[in-house]
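Usage example:
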Amino acid sequence: MSANTQALPAEKKTLGMGQMKSVVFALLLDTFLWTYVSLVLYKVIYQKIILALRFPEFSWNEPTTALIVGGIITLALFFTKFSIGRATSGLYELDENKSIMKEPFTLLGIAIIFLTFIAGIYISQISIREFLSESGLSGARRIFTALFQPNLRILEPALFAAIETIYMAFIATALALPFAFLFGFFAARNLMNGSRLGLAVYYIVRFFLNLTRSIEPLVWAIIFSVWVGIGPFAGMLALMIHSISSLAKLYSEQIENISNGPIEAITATGAHPIQVIWFGVVPQIVLPYLSFTIYRWDINVRMATVIGLVGGGGIGTMLMQYQGLAKWNEVGLLVIVIASVVWVMDYASSKIREAIK
Amino acid sequence: MLEVRELQKIYDNGTHALKGVSFDVKQGEFLVVIGLSGSGKSTLLRCINRLHDPTSGAVNFEGEDITKLRGAKIRNVRSRIGMIFQHFNLIPRRTVLTNVLSGSLSKNGIFKSLLGIWPEEDKKKAMQYINIVGLTGKENIRADNLSGGQQQRVSIARALMQNPKILLADEPVASLDPATSHSVMQYLKKVNEELGVTVICNLHFLSLVRQYASRVIALKDGLLIYEGKPLDIDENWFQTIYGEEAVEVTIN
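Running the assembly step on the lines above writes:
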């Protein structure tokens, strides 16, 4: 009993802290939303649509003013039912009989999404007039007729380039495999949370994997084409870097899903941790790994084409060259070759993955 | 040969699984641990071979306190204690022979074992234990293709590969049907009597306890509440251990 009464005030305190946190969060969210609304209303609705300015001037005073306006509106409406922040942090006591769609904050939210939609249309410069204009349509007609009359004379070099692309993707996957295999273990929480050192390694590896994965292979290809020169090698390196981080992520998630039983059993025999991983973990993950790796190869073939556009070699580079010369018949042939390679790879990889399940 | 003293285990989530348990195990005993689910039976076994680290207390195995050992020393202790599990915990997609051989990992070199190279004498020994648990001819079948009872026998053979002084069995028959349960228990009995391996076994069914145990301890809420002969557990003790509402279920 005495333990209970002692525990109560402490509990209240932490509850108060939690409430403080959600109130602060709600205030910040509301301020952000109202600032956004006032900025969009002024810059897009007023300047672009009502005044129809083509290039409205920008000064940092505008977002600052919007922030002040947003803050004032937030303070004015925070305790009414128009506060989205309070709604999302669960600070309202809602009437369960009333549909949530009829609450003022829901209507406000819908209005903000609608506003974003209007602003988005103007910012993307969507224009039906351009889409249906005389000169535009005739250009499109010219390209499409050329595309549908592919130039078969470059079939041979196109096929060679496609083969180069497939091999490039294969080597990128194969070279990424051992690295990803190793990093997969280091990035698996259930294997690494045994000690503080393990957890530190886990966070460092995770950080670098996320970092390399968040840089697009296209960017890597540009970096490597400067580094090692334009060609398949640069493209291969770009795909490899990206494959390492993506595969390691998939592998580690697979490891996190395995059953703990065999690990426990092998540990109980007195085996070394390396043996525990080899006999307790690896047999459970081989097949999923194989499936992921084949899928990655498939993705890499598709990506290799795009990477070729920035100088990564293969059929993508060829496509870029003909496209630059406006030789649409040749481009048409390349598009057909790319489409068939991608289709075949997609079909084959899904069949193989199904077979080894 | 095994002395457990004031063993306590508090999990990271605050669960107080063992609240100071003490008992002795003598050479050649067939000790059965009973108690409700959550009474701390599994934790107790896992503290003995340090799959879980006890919070406080001592476990003296062959005269040495093993609760603070690390690295190669604790692996050496584990290699002398075999363990079998409720869900068998065999290596999936591997043969019966490989599974049995995995019991000898601790004394084989890391790199050789990664390459799958096993000493001839270990292979011979593995075949012998496969024979003992009655699975002759099934060495090269994938372990996960066997029935539950057969899988549990494979795991007994794996534990025997360690030449264990003690065999820990954590609910070895809880996921098996009654007939298979008896067969597995009989193999454990055989290991206990013919090979002289001390057995510590968690069980649910009192009928099995009366038939196989040489001594019984009972846990309730992390405390040891009964210690004695299996036939001395009468109606009163049964209700103390399993609660007022409990009715005994027999298994034949």
